[in-house]
Write the C-alpha cells for this entry.
Amino acid sequence: SNNFSNPSWTKYHGGTVTSGQADKDGGTNAWKLNVVSAQSFSGIYQSISGSGVCTMSLFAKAGTLDRLGIVNMSGAGFAAWFDLTNGTIGTQNASNIDAKIEAVGTDGWYRVSITQTLTASDFFQLKPSDGETAPSGADGFIYIMNAQTEYSLVPTDYIETGSTTAQAGILEDMPRINYDANGENGALLLEPSRTNIFQQSE
C-alpha cells in the first residue's frame, strides 16, 4: 500500500524510491519516485495475480517532473498519462475501461486511477516523465503515496494494508458486490443472516 520499498515493488531501469517526504495530510508519509532519462521505462512496477475488473489508484504530486504514466498491465503500452500540474488526463490505451484524476487539497496532490480487466498475471508500472514520453527527457522525480489495487469499477477510500479495523469498518458500511465470471455486470450480493442456536455446537 504505502511501502514502495517492499519487495513486491520492483525497481526498474534505474528507478529508485525515497521515503519520508511531505505528504498530502501534513505528515511525512509520501515517497519520492526518481527516474533516469537514459532508460525508457525507468520507474517501479508491481506484479498482480487475479482476473476481473480491477482499479489501480494512488496519490501523486509533481516534483521536478510533471507527468505520470501508468503502464498497461499487459505491458502493451501506457494505460494513461496524467498531467500533475493541471489535473488532466492525456493519452490513454484503448484497453482502459476508465481513467480518473482528482485534485486532493490545495498542495498539488492528485488521486489518479485506471480501471482495466485483469488477466491471470499482469503488472502495472509507475513511470514519471517530463512529458508523454518514454524515456523522459530529463532525470527527475515525482511524489507518490498510498497505492491501492482492488476489484472495483471505481477507486474506493484508501485502506492501509494490514489495517483490519479500517477493513472491518468498510465491510460493515459498504455493500458487497457480486460480479459475473467475466468480472463484469456487478450486482448487490444479498445473503440472509443466520445464527447458530446451539451454544455448544461442537
User: Anything to note?
Assistant: The mean pLDDT is 83. Residues 164-173 form the longest helix (10 residues). The helical segments are 164-173. The longest strand covers residues 52-62.
